[in-house]
Amino acid sequence: MERATERGTRRGEERRAEIVRRALEVIAERGYRGATLGAVAERVGLTQQGLLHYFPTKDSLLIAVLEERDQWDTGSARHDGEHIWPLDLLASLVEYNAMRPGVVQTFSALLGESVTGDHPARGFFTQRYDRVRADMAAILRGEFGDRLPGGLTPEAAAPLLVAVMDGLQFQWLHDRDAVDMPALFRAFVSLLGQGDEAAGA
Fold first, then answer.
1. Is the same domain home to 73 and 7?
2. How far is C-alpha 188 from the chain's CA centre?
3. SUPFAM superfamilies, per this entry (predicted)?
4. How does pLDDT run across 29-86, given as a tens digit for each residue?
5. Is the N or C terminus of the chain more exposed, i.e. has fewer CB atoms within 10 Å?
6. What is the residue range of 170's domain?
């Protein structure tokens, strides 16, 4: 009986994961507001009622999609005990994102939509940015100490680092030939390591 329960739980988890993947595809194609539960259910091969068994509301499915996306790339550079991601690993993450435009497009579209006060992902992104800024500050402190070569504190530079990562994604989505996202991010990281003398040269 216990094994059957375990099998059922595993099947349920696999089904939920498939629904999240398909929901990401539909959102990438139609945007959040245009992505209906019916469209996601059809993509998975379920009735809408069957889908509601796993995700009772569209908002709960959206948050699951966003959380799954964060787990895929650990874009917030989570700490592992005392270990903090180095800047080089962040640059590798940007390269990885350049290989999966669909995921980047979905995230960017939802980020843009979430600035409206009634959007269900607004709280998610607000909390995420609080966490990401703190993580980026920790990364910069691990790299440079309490002051970057240009004089900024890690806390002051962290929002700039986040802005460059997300801003490059938007530009890259509009014109991938003109915007080399990984190379430009590495160039920005190089600028962070320059002092006032190098910046003014």
1. no
2. 19
3. Homeodomain-like, Tetracyclin repressor-like, C-terminal domain
4. 887 778 899 999 999 999 999 999 999 988 889 888 888 877 755 544 444 444 456 7
5. N
6. 59-200
